[in-house]
Amino acid sequence: MNQIVGELFQTSDIRVKDADKARIFDIVFNGYAKSRKEILEKYHIRPTVLTNAVRELLADGLIMEEKKATIHSGRPEIDLVPVPDRLAAICFHAESRHLKAALVNLKGEILHETGREFSADSDGDAFLGLCGEQIRHLMTLMPSNATLAGIGMSLPGSVDTKAKSFLSTYRWPKARQLELRGLEKEFGCELNVRKDLDSVLEHYMLKYPELAKGNTLLFHWGFGVGFAFAQNGRNVNRDSRRFGEVGHTRVDTGNKKTCICGSTGCIETDTAIWALLPSIKRLDASLIDDEQIITEFCESHHEIAAIPAVSEAMRTISLAMMNMYRIFFPSHILLLGPFFAVPSITRSLEERIILETSSTSMPDLDFRTIHEGYRGCIYTNARHVFARKLGEMLRAKF
Fold this sequence. Notes:
Low-confidence stretches: none
CATH class of the largest domain: Alpha Beta
Shape: elongated
Strand order of the largest sheet: 5-4-3-6-10
Order of helices and strands: HHHHEEEEEHEEEEHEHEEEHHHHEHEH
Structural class: alpha/beta
Number of strands: 15
CATH architecture of the largest domain: 2-Layer Sandwich
């Protein structure tokens, strides 16, 4: 979360005193200096500005004073320390058909998590009801001094980020055209809505700054097939509701299988978990179409790669990715999904893509496998929620 404050006040219309207050909070929050004296000596901030800013930050509860033990007689030194539990965010993301929510503080620490399966035949009212239930539960677990800064949602399928609407997803076909703004009114806080793969990509570009240089492609192969893409750290998907749904394109005109989207011949009919599950269950009949469960199975059962249906799926995925390479020419490729837990699958895919790039005179590709699933959504959600709230609280009143 330590990038939030530095990005808040970089536009030309921000007052100098707002930037000064934000800078002082950033210094204290990240432990760059601990006392007023140290801040003055290191950063040469005007004493009156420091005094006024610290007074407001103390009043807002964003920082607190802490007496420092001394071995000499005299006035004890007083440190300024952050209060990470002053603000909390509730962050939603989906994994297969599970809707999960986490309570996160300003330090990015996950205080509590909850989640429940949301069945494929459930409708929009049930979806909103489950969201409200999880929010109310997590609010009862908030630290006593915390304010709910906002709610962040990273969702699959088609999302209208501006209107804050969940338009559709094939995993929950009856949950369509959902207006999510009602959650803002019910809980009295800001709501931020994003596509899940965009959130995962943003998290990893912040975690590993080298990924923000050049073209970065995140490719997901799991419950469905999709991608997110960024150029020099900027996600190219601004407003497109269905951007990245490569799983519903076709690479084989002879494929007449019906997809869950209603079309025929989509890539997902040969590659998605829901399509492969009948074949995979020959190894373990207890498996269900859940990414986390399939991931754990793949980690200990590498023989899954030898199943004919999985081998065919890998060829289809390879073809799709080679086509995407020719369109985007990425420098970095992030692989997300259960099947990438099988080394032979990941290695084979990388070799095929590298072979495709050998004639392009492009730099060597940087492949990385994401092992944390969609958990990056939690931190991206929290980051956007806190940025908005801190933007309000760090406006100087002096």
